[in-house]
């Protein structure tokens, strides 16, 4: 892949929009997003990985679900991709990429489907903060995944959820 210019996938110039970038160590992952093909926009399952140490790009394994407006977070030896929108609507689907074998696996879905949320990893837990629900309304919940048990719960509600709206 050409490190100096725009990327090309399947003969089409990459035009990502509303992706879920995240990082683990020296790698920056750009997952999913919208792709414009002529006049149509559609969700994609693409994964592009930028290596900061050698200034190079490579294609990662495709996600199980095409999505955009999702969040992602690195946790241990995994990259988690959470929620977002598909061409059918907002989803609670979660999948993770095991860096050891470059395979995606589905995990338990979030309690509330959201898009445009933020995510952070703290210890053995992932927190998904606010977002937009399936009606386009601001969701004020803080969802938590215990990575050891693969169980989600809602632990709090933001007093100022509109500040998280993108």
From TrEMBL:
InterPro entries for the chain: Kelch-BTB_domain-containing (IPR052392), Kelch-typ_b-propeller (IPR015915), Kelch_1 (IPR006652)
Q: Which keywords, in A-to-Z order, does the entry hold?
A: Kelch repeat
Output the superkingdom of the source species.
Answer: Eukaryota
Q: Which Gene3D superfamilies match?
A: Kelch-type beta propeller
Tell me the protein's name.
Kelch-like protein 24
